[in-house]
């Protein structure tokens, strides 16, 4: 398990980037790290990878403080992509494999496997600068994976990708997680995080404001009753709990408490009920509530 405990980091005299950040990522778990720009995601990941030193707190792997030797076994994809633009795809991946300690033969073999797995076979002899953003992202992921890492730490890996590239990268990450690798990635694409991740951490202004499985976060918000009424009588929802809005010409009541049967009776009397049921809040709604 990767454990991040009470991280604190201040830049300059007043800029506190992290203020007691704690969470854990278990083996085989995909952890989505979400927050607004400047919330502290990248700073946290840089501390995990040893790029920055924490002022307080610690990072532990398998119960022990994380050191340089252990970090060499991590796969890291920084927000600022670190590829050599003039280098060809196969050379690039193999080169980073050698930097991670693979033999020339081992690095070449690992590069060939990843090139095929990530759909880069036709671009193997191209320089990185000639690739589309999506293919550059695939190369960057290959660089993070080439040494078969014990942990994956990925900062905005899906940024700017088309749906096909997103699916390709997501499938590879899911395979690694199924193999027991803890995967932590940051993203602003909350629907994608909700679809892929086992657990989610929400950070705001350097503090963790929510953390847990998606189901746990949903339970903390509570249930939500959604009622859609077409051709509704004016004022039908007066006195009922919840918020009334208009969507596509239909009145929609969103209620988090109150008697279901009483609400249903009022809706039936008001017009044609097109939908009546309990809905789960989306991760986007959970995020908005947590950072408000």
Concise structural overview:
It is found in: Cell membrane. The chain is of the alpha/beta class. It has ten helices and 14 strands.
Explain this structure.
With 292 residues, this protein is an alpha/beta fold. It folds into 2 domains: 2-219, Rossmann fold (3-Layer(aba) Sandwich), CATH 3.40.50.300; 223-280, no CATH class. Helices cover 35% and strands 29% of the residues. The chain contains 10 helices and 14 strands. The protein has helices spanning 41-48, 68-71, 89-99, 104-117, 133-145, 163-178, 190-196, 214-221, 260-270, 283-291, and strands spanning 2-11, 15-25, 30-34, 56-61, 64-65, 74-77, 151-155, 183-186, 199-204, 207-213, 224-230, 243-247, 250-255, 272-279. The protein has a 6-stranded mixed sheet, sandwiched between helices. The chain has a 4-stranded antiparallel sheet with strand order 2-1-4-5, covered by helices on one side. Strand 4 and strand 5 form a beta hairpin. Helix 3 (89-99) crosses helix 4 and helix 3 runs parallel beside helix 5 (133-145). The protein starts with a strand and ends with a helix. The mean pLDDT is 91.
């Amino acid at each position: 398990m990767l454990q991040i405990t009470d991280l604190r980091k201040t830049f300059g005299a007043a800029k506190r980037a992290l203020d007691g950040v704690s969470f854990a990522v278990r083996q085989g778990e995909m952890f989505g790290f979400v927050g607004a720009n400047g919330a502290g995601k990248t700073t946290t990941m840089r501390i995990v990878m040893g790029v920055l030193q924490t002022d307080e707190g610690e990072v532990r792997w398998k119960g022990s403080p994380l050191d340089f030797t252990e970090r060499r076994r991590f796969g890291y994809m920084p927000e600022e992509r670190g590829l050599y633009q003039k280098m060809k795809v196969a050379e690039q991946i193999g080169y980073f494999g050698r930097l991670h300690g693979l033999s020339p033969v081992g690095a070449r073999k690992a590069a060939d496997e990843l090139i095929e797995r990530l759909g880069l076979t036709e671009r193997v002899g191209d320089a990185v600068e000639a690739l589309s953003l999506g293919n550059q992202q695939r190369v960057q992921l290959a660089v993070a994976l080439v040494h078969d890492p014990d942990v994956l730490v990925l900062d905005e890996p899906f940024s700017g990708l088309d749906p096909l590239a997103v699916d390709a990268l997501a499938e590879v990450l899911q395979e690694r997680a199924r193999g027991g690798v803890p995967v932590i990635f940051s993203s602003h694409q909350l629907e994608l995080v909700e679809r892929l991740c086992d657990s989610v951490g929400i950070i705001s202004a350097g503090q963790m404001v929510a953390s847990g499985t998606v189901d746990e976060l949903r339970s903390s918000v509570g249930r939500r009753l959604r009622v859609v009424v077409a051709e509704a009588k004016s004022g039908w929802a007066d006195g009922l709990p919840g918020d009334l809005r208009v969507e596509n010409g239909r009145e929609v009541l969103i209620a988090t408490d109150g008697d279901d049967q009483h609400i249903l009776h009022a809706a039936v009397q008001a017009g044609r009920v097109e939908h009546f049921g309990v809905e789960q809040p989306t991760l986007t709604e959970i995020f908005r509530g947590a950072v408000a």
